[in-house]
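Please review the protein record below. Let me know how this chain folds according to its tokens.
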Amino acid sequence: MAGARPEVRDEVAIVLDIVESIPPGRVMSYGQVAATFGSRSARGVGRIMAMYGSDVPWWRVVRAGGLPPQAHEEEALVHYEAEGTPLQTRANGGYRVAASAFV
């Protein structure tokens, strides 16, 4: 059990480093972040972001279709507008990040 702990910390640090490297106005999907370090676990990235992501630009990690992090849409929108992130209005009045914003 003690051997698995450093691995988990390493994965957390890797994910947070990747997120910090996303330029303002650009985004990556959870799956893209995972693929960057050789994983296929978008959900794993989501868990890491939920637990440890508050100190990094979390709004720059979106769902594959460009939707902002669930339950953080309004807070994320403030960041997107401040950074000039390209957005598209959805038919239901919501928004998504435009494909051109993906790294």
Notes: The beta strands are 28-29, 61-62, 87-89, 95-97. The chain is about 45% helix and 10% strand. Residues 1-5 have pLDDT under 50 and may be disordered. Residues 25 and 82 are 9 Å apart (CA to CA).
